[in-house]
């Protein structure tokens, strides 16, 4: 496993996927592939799962996943609106300014 995190581009990820899927070299093994490229097993596993998305991405792209989906879109919009109002007034918006309320219904 590498000593610290790295961001790998699309081409490198495709090279790793290709190497892992090459039965002629007897690879077909995520652990062997991870060791060969000095990667984490989980990275290889994730890249194999998202191979199609990686192939469809633009050349040189590093981030393939769009991120998490918003669980509460209305709350997210309200929070963003409040943030923009603070910013217009030149105020700093801290996480401690967010008031969390649990509604039981």
Relevant terms:
mainly alpha; about 100 residues
What does this structure look like?
By secondary structure, this protein is mostly helical. The protein has a single domain, classed as Homeodomain-like (Arc Repressor Mutant, subunit A, Orthogonal Bundle). It contains five helices and no strands. The chain has helices spanning 10-20, 30-36, 41-49, 51-56, 73-88. It starts with 9 loop residues before the first helix and ends in a 17-residue tail after the last helix. The model has no long low-confidence stretch (mean pLDDT 80).
Outline the secondary-structure elements:
Elements (H helix, E strand, L loop, with lengths): L9 H11 L9 H7 L4 H9 L1 H6 L16 H16 L17
Helix pairs in contact: 2-3
How many domain regions? 1
Q: Kindly report the name of the CATH homologous superfamily.
A: Homeodomain-like
Distance between the termini: 48 Å
Report the top-level CATH class: Mainly Alpha
Largest pleated sheet: none
Structural class given helices, strands, pairing?
Answer: mainly alpha
Number of strand segments: 0
Unreliable runs, pLDDT <50, ≥5 residues?
none
CATH topology: Arc Repressor Mutant, subunit A
Judging by the overall fold, what is the CATH architecture?
Orthogonal Bundle
The proportion of residues forming helix, as a percent range, comes to 40-55%
Task: Encode the helix/strand succession as letters.
Answer: HHHHH
């Amino acid at each position: 496993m590498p000593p610290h995190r790295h961001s790998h581009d699309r081409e490198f990820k495709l090279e790793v996927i290709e190497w892992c899927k090459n039965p002629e070299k007897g690879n077909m093994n995520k652990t062997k592939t991870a060791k060969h490229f000095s990667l984490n097993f989980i990275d290889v596993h994730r890249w194999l799962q998202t191979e199609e998305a990686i192939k469809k991405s633009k050349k040189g792209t590093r981030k393939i996943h769009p991120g998490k989906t918003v669980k509460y879109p209305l709350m997210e919009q309200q929070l963003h609106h409040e943030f923009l109002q603070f910013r217009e007034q030149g105020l700093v918006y801290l996480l401690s300014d967010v008031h969390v309320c649990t509604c039981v219904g």
